Description:
With 564 residues, the protein is of the alpha+beta class. The protein is 40% helix and 19% strand. The strands form 8 sheets. It has a 5-stranded mixed β-sheet with strand order 12-11-15-16-17, with helices on one face. Strands 1-2-5-4 form a 4-stranded mixed β-sheet, with helices on both faces. It is flat. The two termini are 63 Å apart.
Amino acid sequence: MDVARVRELIARGETLTTEFKRGSNFNDTALVETVACMANGEGGVLLIGVEDDGRITGATPRHGDRTDPRRVDALIASRTVPLLQTLTRVMTIDDCEVIAVEVPKSSRIVGTSGGVYLRRTLKIDGTPQCVPFPAYEMLAREIDRGAVDFAALPARGATMEDLDPKEFDRFRTMASASGADSVIAGLSDVEICRALGVVKPADDGVDRPTLGAVLLFGNQDAVVQHLPNHEVAFQLFSGLAMEVNHFTKAPLLKVAQDLFDRVATWNRDEELQLGMLRISIPNLPIVVVREAIANALVHRDYTAMGPVRVVINDDSFEVTSPGAFPPGVRLDNLLTVSQPRSPLLADAFRRAGLVERSGRGISLMFASLLRLGRDAPDYSQSTDHMVRAVVPLGHADLPLARVISQNESTTGRPMSLFDLQVLHELRAQTKLSANEIAEQLHRTLGETRAGLSRMIEAGLVELRGSGRGRLYHLSAGVYKALDNPPAYVRVRGTDSIQQERMITQYVESFGSISRAQAAELCMITPDQASRVLRRMAADGALVLIGARKGARYVAPSDAGPNES
Length: 564
């Protein structure tokens, strides 16, 4: 932190990560409370000696005739719980002394030694403030940051009698049938809870169930009493008419099984003819139903109000759950990062065979849909308060599904998720550069280029152009398998002679052509179109009239005397 950086922060004004405080009458208690408040947000910088409007008025010395930065940091460390390590600097700006305290974002909720807990938020007018931090919000924050597993919290007053033996039998049946954990299926009820980490010994030595045990195995009354926010809704629409509107507060394993059965009853198949074989293409592959529902039940924020919703309508299958993505998970890394909000619940679902053990369930969802010629799940409507997975319904791209099936049959192995994504993107957008593919698939450029090179060797895609104009498109073999060879001819583009013929014909028909029109006509980039047009002008086949955005090429016979 230097003077230039402080000036920059002051010029931007107060934000959630920048706080100004008047230099006089800002005592140690207020200093510690402000720093703890900022640490409970995104961290930031506290500037003492700066007015709310950004005027630099200077800070009163805090230690006699000077301010000792080390003593400021020591004060904060001694009066925060857990201990917070800050970095304080004192600098002179416009002949005034400013104290800059750099505050880290804390992984744990920070309070003062006096028991004050604050959090950072915005007022209605958009300016920041520190407000009291309620206990229920602190718990939700700890869970979101991965510091606390909700399922490990004690269910106050609950005993093993509040757990339903039928739910333990359900768990054993699931674990045995799936083969996910045959050992745990042979344990007693208490031993299962111990293996899953959802019981804790009380002072009297008796095992007491946690909230996770009640969620997984509790009877109806226990679930309602200890987990008031837990609820699941299944809604089925036909047009605007609601055919099913079912709500339940049953334990998780029972809910999951019920939802799977309800979706299976609705699910329909299309048929793909592959030689003498008929292949069923379901609206929703089983893995998609399983992973979408299980993820919502496991990863939802159980401190937030609202049900998990499973909604089927004419256009989509949607699963919505309260709470943001788990810590570290974002839209751009969904396929590569697996970070459960509750590791205990995730482990229980894995042992029951309800989710993918490798933690790549969402990748399996994407791959299973793309393999069947269907669109991938869409998570873009997710917010800081909910996660929404939307799977578009409708007819599958059966020709593309046939191509994928034939390729996998020939190679004897499933096509990779990257290959499936690229095939779908090029099928939809015709031509893309490596940069465009990398951006759309949220992958590095090096990773993308390596994958595309492998697809070229496999005969799935082809590369045209050079330099920045290099574009990828589906190969001739793929278009042939799609029963659409003419599309390949159009996509592949034309050689220079054919391009010149097409441009000449266009000019004869319409009088002139611009660079953008030539690029669209020949299905090449604007830079490639410019080179073709300039070459034709140099050969005397065309004449350039106008400049910049108004530049157009005409036939020599249509050019004026000063333009030919």
